[in-house]
Amino acid sequence: MKPRELKANIHWVGAVDWDRRLFDELIPLPDGTSYNAYLVKGSEKTALIDTVDPTMASVLIDNLNQLDVKNIDYVVANHAEQDHSGALPQILKMYPNALVVATPKCKRLLMDLLLIPESKIVTVEDGGTLSLGDKTLEFIHAPWVHWPETMLTYLREDKILFTCDFLGSHLATSDLYVTDEATVYEAAKRYYAEIMMPFKTVIQKNLEKIRDIQIDVIAPSHGPLYDKPEFILEAYKDWVYAPPKNIVVLPYISMHGSTKKMVEYFVAALVERGITVKQFNLAKTDIGKLAMALVDAATIVIGSPTVLVGPHPNVVYAVYLANALRPKLKFASIIGSYGWGGKMVEQITRMLPNLKVELLEPVVIKGFPKEQDFGALDRLADEILNKHKEHNLTN
Ligand code: FEO
After folding, report:
1. Which CATH number covers residue 354?
2. Is 50 in the pocket of ligand 1 (CB under 6 A)?
3. What is the CA(229)–ligand 1 centre distance, in A?
């Protein structure tokens, strides 16, 4: 992709990674991603806002060459993670006069992770500014979206907010701005679920912090830019502030069919009661889809057989994830089976300390489900319905 002009003297110079399918060797990227970097030329100084993943440094360099950029005065590092700062060493080599602009915490991380010399980094305080001549960069510290050192950069005269990871989406697209809102909503929600949701409370503070800023364009460092900022700001408000919905998320796995039979019966029982169910077979599911479902759900019911004396390892992974992501869940329960004993319920329960959930009576049975076991599942479905009603949760 060639450089794209946002406005006079402001260009997108990043890279689109159409083929990447895994991030941090952990997060699935079904739609690829982009590493957005921006060149801002003032009347006196030139700044590059973020760089790109080191695997795509040559794309950034090619873009800068196409714009015939002879000098860069500042490289703003909004975030030290390698997908945005990983190409810094090459850029500093190419533009030896450039100084890196970062928060004090980011400075330390850039030195530790990327071995950037201390003398090359200047730090900026929250609310600090940097004049490029006829353009002014204002720095807004926004820690924990999603590392402790993160900041946003606001280009005052053009009302562009460069948010790096915050408000972004893992989406490879040829569109500079959002065109297909449904697709971007899905990608941004996945991004929020996987990366931002554990930091819900600081995200609330950061949304407050930018509430009174006049923003024409939000320019994140992943995915398309928002020329209608309210699209992504309203979505975030819903994900962060709104109460959970009348939804049960049901991650499960079954080895010999007993747990599967329970899940089938239980899902039908919940649906009969007007509850939306999102069911995930952990042997096959995209873990990102499970994370997305957790954004809105009020209840999680975990389905597992007993392996040795505990839950299936895939269930352990999903429970660890749910606990780490800290969704808005209010209730949890467990269904499943065992052959001759075990401590599955105790082990799963111990793994959920971050979730402020009420544990509803689990239904863990011996062998294949029988009549009384279906009755117990009906009682659990009734209890979930009553709890959701008590909290006035809607679909
Ligand atoms: Fe896109 Fe936290 O890096």
Report:
1. 3.40.50.360
2. no
3. 20
The burial of 49, by beta-carbon neighbours within 10 Å (0-12 exposed, 13-18 middle, 19 or more buried), is given as buried
226: Cα within 13 Å, side-chain hemisphere = 25
Residue 393 domain flag: no
Q: What is the pLDDT of residue 22?
A: 85
Q: What are residue 93's phi and psi, to 5 degrees?
A: -70, -40
Condensed to tens digits (0 to 9), the pLDDT of residues 24-46 reads 878 889 999 999 999 999 999 99
Q: Which of 185, 214, 241 is a domain's end point? A: 241
53 within ligand 1 shell (Cβ under 6 A)? no
Q: Is 17 in the pocket of ligand 1 (CB under 6 A)?
A: no
Q: Is the CB of 170 under 6 A from ligand 1?
A: no
**Measured from the CB, is residue 189 less than 6 Å from ligand 1?**
no
pTM over 0.85: yes
Residue % of the chain over a pLDDT of 90: 97
| Same structural domain, 235 and 253 | no
The CATH number assigned to the domain holding 126 equals 3.60.15.10
pLDDT at 261 over 80: yes
Per the structure, the complete domain to which residue 143 belongs is given by 4-241
Cα(162) to centroid of ligand 1, in Å?
13
Residue nearest to atom 2 of ligand 1 (CA): 81
pLDDT 10s digits, 81-92: 999 999 999 999
User: What count of residues does the chain have?
Assistant: 395
Ligand 1 centroid–CA 69 distance in Å is: 26
Together in a domain, 26 and 175: yes
Give residue-wise pLDDT tens across range 299-353.
Answer: 999 999 999 999 999 999 999 999 999 999 999 999 999 999 989 999 999 999 9
